[in-house]
Specification:
alpha/beta, Rossmann fold, binds 1,4-dihydronicotinamide adenine dinucleotide, about 325 residues, oxidoreductase, seven-stranded parallel sheet
């Protein structure tokens, strides 16, 4: 029988014990790379592979056409916008993601960003450490709203959006949301009030983005949307960078037309040299790290490795995506 091959195209995990054990149990060869993401290189690396595991690699029609018959593609994580799922269906390639490895951690990080920007944590720190006096009066950086007076606006009410809602409601905030495909029952159970997009922009003190990146949501938060937000509003994005026009966001916050930015995801990662976000005021950036805790990382790799083993054994997948 032909030796089966599992290819990991790109990853930066501290170790791959789960993957190594799963491949060994299924008698498959494991090929590991850390940085192969561009179509041509991915196609070359994965030609004839039975399983491809990826973080951000481009899994295009051409890549899919080169895989072994009945191959499986496993996305390490939730969003799968770099995979052509329709082409996969045409080629008989199964695709799955790992939707449930760390939504709590992403929600924790989102709320941390929102509150840190609202409470001006970085600015206080900078003023204490960089000013001659070594101090700053609390009210010098005001006004700062009480969290219990804040209207928190979610864009997207899936698993992460709802977990964010539960957390900020515990702080006493009111939660409103825009989501054209909302699960009305689940949303009501979290005490979230659904609104249309314009109402959300107009009313929210914090706009928090939790939708998938699709052609429909690309630049959903553009210059027009930001102009409709309150001048004091804070924009938080831990979903995907391209949901927000980040240049327009940097301009708006620099011109005082937005209250602050908390961004874990950017349109280009790493952030380009000279990008206006590098010098934007009242802005906190984290490096696509919202998913990361020791627990979520373990879950992510274990769940993905288990899918790999199921794929190699020809069993049904736990989280197969269907178009
Ligand atoms: P989910 O699939 O559970 O929820 C997405 C929600 O967005 C759904 O309720 C859906 O109806 C809604 N939605 C779809 N189109 C919309 C539109 N046009 N406008 C408003 N809402 C819309 O996804 P989940 O797990 O909650 O993930 C949310 C986001 O977080 C995704 O973009 C995902 O890629 C991202 N993510 C980011 C991580 C990070 O480390 N920063 C880690 C994990 C996920």
């Amino acid at each position: 029988m032909r030796a089966r091959r599992v290819v990991i195209t790109d990853q930066s995990f501290p170790g791959l014990a789960h993957e190594e054990r799963a491949a060994a149990r299924a008698g498959a060869e494991l090929v590991v790379r850390s940085d192969v993401t561009a179509e041509a290189e991915v196609a070359e690396l994965t030609a004839g592979a039975d399983v491809v595991m990826l973080a951000y690699a481009e899994i295009t029609d051409r890549v899919l056409a080169g895989l072994a018959e009945g191959a499986t593609v496993i996305r390490y994580g939730i969003g799968y916008e770099t995979i052509d799922v329709e082409a996969a269906a045409r080629h008989g390639v199964r695709v799955c993601n790992v939707p449930d490895y760390g939504a709590d951690t992403v929600a924790d990080h989102t709320v941390m960003l929102a509150l840190a920007v609202l409470r001006r944590v970085a600015d206080y720190h900078a003023r204490i450490t960089a000013s001659e006096s070594g101090w700053v009066s609390a009210t010098d950086l005001g006004p700062i709203a009480a969290v219990s007076d804040v209207t928190y606006g979610l864009v997207g009410t899936g698993q992460i959006g709802r977990k964010v809602a539960a957390r900020v409601r515990a702080f006493g905030a009111e939660v409103i949301a825009y989501d054209p495909y909302a699960d009305a029952e689940a949303v009501a159970a979290e005490g979230i009030t659904l609104t249309d997009f314009d109402t959300l922009l107009e009313c929210a003190d914090i706009v928090s983005v939790h939708a998938p990146l699709t052609p429909e949501t690309r630049h959903l938060i553009d210059a027009r949307a930001m102009a409709a937000m309150k001048d004091s509003a804070i924009l938080v994005n831990t979903a995907r960078g391209a949901l927000v026009d980040t240049r327009a966001a940097a301009e708006a916050v620099s011109a005082g037309r937005l209250g602050g930015l908390g961004l874990d995801v950017l349109e280009s990662e790493p952030l380009e040299e000279g990008h206006p976000l590098r010098t934007a005021p009242r802005t906190l950036l984290t490096p696509h790290a919202a998913f990361y805790s020791e627990r979520s990382l373990t879950n992510l790799q274990r769940f993905a490795a288990e899918e790999m083993e199921r794929a190699l054994r020809g069993e049904s997948l736990r989280c197969q995506l269907r178009r």
